[in-house]
Every structure is written in C-alpha cells, then in structure tokens.
Amino acid sequence: MPAPDERTHDPAERLEAGALRRLQDRRLREVVARAAAVPFYAAALERRGVDPAAFGGLDHLDRLPLTTKQDLRDHYPLGFLAVPRSALARIHGSSGTTGRPTFVAYTARDLDTWAGLVARVLVAGGLRPEHLVHVAFGYGLFTGGFGLHQGIERVGAAVIPAAGGNTPRQVMLLEDLRPEALVCTPSYALHVAEVARGLGKDPAALGLRLGHFGGEPWTEEMRGELERQLGIQAFNNYGLSEVIGPGVAGECRARGGMHVAEDHFLLEVLDPATLRPVPDGRPGELVFTTLTREAMPVLRYRTRDIAAVERGPCPCGRTGARLGRIVGRSDDMLVIRGVNVYPSQVEEALLRVEGTAPHYLIEVARPGTLDEAVVKVEIRAEELSDEMRRMVSLRDRIDHEIHAVTGIRMAVELVAPGTLERSQGKARRVLDHRRGPPAA
Ligand code: DLL
C-alpha cells in the first residue's frame, strides 16, 4: 500500500496493468484514426497496408510507421497538424540546430491535458497547493516555462514566473519571496547557487525545500550537489516538445526512476540500430506514441534519448513504467576513438572527485588521424593551490575516474572557478570540432 501522504494528482496514475492496457489499446486505435488526417501518416499507413479506420490496436503497434525529427523538419512549419489551424490554441517550438524551430501545436484540450500531466509530476515530487514556486525556465516558444507554469497552477500552488536570465535578480526574488520550490534546468539551479554565494548569501538559507529539475541530462552526483548546496530535495522530470513538453515522466518521492504517463504516451524502448525492442532494464532509444493529443499526434516518435525502463511495483503505488536517468541523446553520444561516451558519464566521473565543480566542457577534435578529447573542468575555489603537486594529484584522480567510467583516456585541463560559460537554460557540455562550428 502507498504511504498515506503519497498523493497522486490523478487516479489514472495507479491504473492496474489490465485496465491500462485496455485504455491504451482503445486510445491507440483512436489516435491512428486521427493521425490519418496528416498527409505524412496517411501515406505511410497506406504504404504499410494499415487501414486507419480498422487498425488492430496494441498488438499491431509495430505496423505503424516511426516518426523522426527529420520528418517533422521536412514538413516545416505545420505539416503535421491533424486539426484545422482555426482549432489551435497555442504553438510552441523546440530550438533546433538548423536555426528553424520544430513547432508543436496544441488545441485547448491539449493544453488542458498537458497542465494535468505536469501537475502529476509535480505532486509526485512533493509539490502541494500551499507552496510557492519560482520558475526560472524561459517563457516563450520553449515548453519549459509555460508548461511548468500551468502545471503548478493546476496543482493549486502559486507561481513566480521569474523566467530565465538576470541571475542576481533571481537570487533577490528567492530571498525576498522565499518560495518553497525552484523549477529550472539542473545546470541553471547550480548557477543560481553559485551567484547567491558570490553575493555573499548562503544558498541553503534561501528557504527552498524542493527542486523540480529537467530539460537536460544530469546525474545522481549532480543531484547530491544541488541538494547539498541549496538544502533541497531534488526531483527529475522529463519531456520533449515533439511529444508534448514537460510532463511526460517524473519522479515520485521514492526516486526510483521517472514514472511515465503511460495512459497518454505509449512507450517503446528500441535498439537504435536494429529498431527491435530491448528488454526492461536495458538502455535503448525511447519511442513515444501520443495517445490523446489532438492538434499534433505523433506515432512512434524516435526521441533519440537513451534510457532503461523498469516496471516493478513502486512504493508510491503509481503503476507507470519508470524511466531511469536519460544517459544521453544518441546524437549527443560522442564516439571517441571508437568508444561511445556520453557527457553524463564524464559528469559522473568528475563529481566523484572531491575538489571539482560540476562545471565542465568536453572538447573533441581530430588534429591528425586520431580523436583527441579534452575535458575542461573547474576546480573549487578552496582547492586552488600554488602547490604544483596538489594540482597534479587532483588532475590524476580525475583522469583515473574518467578512465574508470568511460573506458577511455581524455586529457584533463583544470581551469579556475567561474571561467567556463554558464548557461541560462540548457547547458552545453560538448564542443565537437570534428562536426564543424556549432550552430547558433
Ligand atoms: O526540454 C521539455 C522539458 C522542459 C522537460 C522542462 C522538462 C523540463 P525540448 O526542448 O524539446 O523539451 O528538449 C527535449 O531534452 O529529448 C531530452 O534529450 C532532454 N531532456 C528533457 N528532460 C530531461 C531530463 C524540453 N530530465 C530534450 N533528463 C529531450 C535528461 C532531458 N534529458
């Protein structure tokens, strides 16, 4: 039985397996019928001999076409609409490396569903109606700001829509208004703590109790760091614009993975090379079918996010499959001298070493025929030393951990505190000179 204080926002979070499957099956048939209004899907379904009005449901899932980011790009700007433009209530977008965003559209009902899904994640992670929440996500095309904002309101809590940027002012707001919860990317939360300290304030004394962080990969080590520095409990939440935005999955207080809202998003975990399902507990590419979205349903959307899924019972009573940490995006995966390395592995290694700060940048180049990777890592101010031996020993320990976690050697460059660029949103962890200059 769930603990008595383990509230859910929606009873659907505890649907037993059979009921969930029946609901998914019905909704899948419905969404396939709706998706046929999108010329891309109508053509793809026809090619596969699927009659959208008589689709066979869950057992025939693998007959549905996969959808990629490139498919969405090829139908820029709104070629995936399944409803008339006049039925839209809002458009968001995700920033792309091509300069053009990928747009995602919502009907009024989609917005309502979305707010409910974000509310689930927040309640699971301890947010309550009496709380005040500081949102430092960007408000705009990005789904983070508005998405979290509406979810907080749905919980019945109060929002400070601080948005991104001007960190000293954010610290002032936190200090003066004393919200219980902070909502932003984990890297930005760390920056807020750093700026607070720079202003002579103890970030742990700001009165925050909860952090709901998402939008970018982070590690358990980073969680420990944020909890210690800000005096909070930190919860991970996951989502992506193409599927809806935040609210796809989030941790409960057991923090044993992020519960997926499987009544709204059908999840498959596939081997990115063979596109065959991988067994539970093993990492693979997350592929989602939106079961309830009206304006822009997506069938079997390939997220490129790599994670493993667990399905055992959770003490909180929620039945949704639990996503492990996103180890990385398949397109963030670095292949260095033939070995696959995710930035999150480097983060994990760095944070095992006392004296390093979680600010780092991995630079990869191929000056000759061999790949060379350099990790620039900031050391903590208190570790800075004129004594060569101490610095060399610190560098050696980092080198050792990186090798232990990733299996390869990277050159380690210690840099002074505060020298690496701080992001206001999602942190950039990799500069890959082999791919040409990064897009703005
Ligand atoms: O980042 C939606 C979001 C906003 C989620 C705020 C959570 C909080 P996009 O800009 O489309 O949407 O980026 C989606 O970000 O495919 C992942 O690669 C990454 N991502 C999002 N949340 C997490 C997380 C939003 N908790 C892309 N852990 C996704 C790791 C995450 N990666």
Q: What can you tell me about this protein's structure?
A:
- The model has no long low-confidence stretch (mean pLDDT 94).
- With 440 residues, the chain is α/β, with parallel strands linked by helices.
- The protein is 29% helix and 23% strand.
- The chain folds into 2 domains: 1-330, Rossmann fold; 334-435, ANL, C-terminal domain (GMP Synthetase, Chain A, domain 3), CATH 3.30.300.30.
- Strand 1 and strand 2 form a beta hairpin.
Please give a quick description of this structure.
With 440 residues, the protein is α/β, with parallel strands linked by helices. It has helices at residues 17-35, 39-47, 69-74, 108-124, 143-155, 167-177, 186-198, 220-230, 343-351, 388-406, and strands at residues 90-94, 102-106, 132-135, 158-160, 181-184, 210-214, 233-240, 245-251, 258-260, 265-270, 284-290, 301-307, 309-310, 322-323, 328-329, 334-336, 339-341, 356-365, 372-379, 411-415, 430-432.
CATH topology of the largest domain: Rossmann fold
How many independent structural domains? 2
Distance between the termini: 50 Å
- The coarse overall form would be globular
Which ligands does the model contain, each kind named once?
Answer: 5'-O-[hydroxy(phenylacetyl)phosphoryl]adenosine
Lateral arrangement of strands in the main beta sheet: 4-3-5-6-7-8-9-14-13
**What percentage of amino acids are in beta strands?**
15-25%
CATH superfamily of the largest domain: ANL, N-terminal domain
Structural class by SSE content: alpha/beta
CATH top level of the largest domain is Alpha Beta
Q: Which architecture of the largest domain per CATH? A: 3-Layer(aba) Sandwich
Total strands: the figure is 21
In terms of per-residue confidence, which ranges show pLDDT below 50 for 5 or more consecutive residues?
A: none
